[in-house]
Design goal:
Elements: E1 8-10, H1 11-21, H2 26-32, H3 37-41, E2 49-54, E3 60-65, H4 72-84, H5 96-102, E4 107-112, H6 119-155, E5 163-172, E6 175-187, E7 197-204, E8 229-231, H7 233-244, E9 249-253, H8 257-265, E10 277-279, H9 280-288, H10 298-304, H11 315-330
Parallel strand pairs: 5-9, 7-8, 9-10
Antiparallel strand pairs: 1-3, 2-3, 2-4, 5-6, 6-7
Helix pairs in contact: 1-5, 6-9, 9-11, 10-11
Amino acid sequence: MAAAPSSLFTLCTVRRAFEEAWPEYAKAIRRFFQLPDFYLELSSATDAFWIGTSKNSLKSHVLLSGDVLVNLPVLVEAHIIKTSQLTVRRPPPFDIDEVLGYFHDEYVNVVPAPPLKSPDVVLEVKKLLDKREKAAKRAAKLDDSKRLLEKAKEAVRKENGKIFIAMDVETYENDHDCVLEVGWCLYNPNRPHDSNLWPKHFIIEENINVNNGRYVENHKFGFLYGESEVKPLAAVAACLRADLSIPGAVLVGHDLGVELDFLGTCGMGPSDVPQEQYDTAVLDLARVGKADAQKTSLSKLCAKFGVTTARAHNAGNDAYYTMAAFIGLTTL
């Protein structure tokens, strides 16, 4: 395979350079660079088109080799004359440095574009771009998960003095705005192993007679790691706010979205919620090693670390299990 040229530009970059040079003919220039005609116009040029992925945006592009830019002014001029029936001045020498001034990016996984001999091939190239872009995003997602897991492992080091709080919220199966239970589990790595976890479970007083059971298991009164407390939602929110305000607090959850939404409905803004957060469902992607893998359920993730998730869908139990999964992931 031929080596990639040292200079590669997106068609948008090159088109904008011509529009700047000849603003009075911007419409004709845009037509010249339209798909698929432009590709077919240069299909005979050797190594004119390449496909690469931007290191910054992760978007994949059809790229134009800098080597063919020298011939483009003549082709653009001919197109303008043909479509406008006017004679126009020739552009000044095409300055590659000027093009770089518009948009400079680095591209990875650069390969020659397939021979562009028909509109059908152009469509295939566009499909290839979409496929590469999705692959690049998956790779970036996996890299982010790995970096986050390493950050989490560093965070649990005893000398960092952090307190981790795993949350879980159970809502009514027929109305997710109706909160039935809230649970959280504090973890202090600085304490001895047999006393470093504090699970808490609260049953919402105003919804004490509302129960799941048709679609979601009902274990409201099945807290296994302490005594449940029955309190109004406002009182539970106040208790939670107090714990989240502990210096060095870090928020943990499994698919944190529900918990973050709950905090918002309780009137907690960004300043009330720990900025350092870890989602065990995201951290687990690093363990699995595949960004497109289906997210592992909390029970299956706990099973990987020998933790049995009895009476799941009790908010206190699930908060405990979430913390167990977090500890397992950060001690791999």
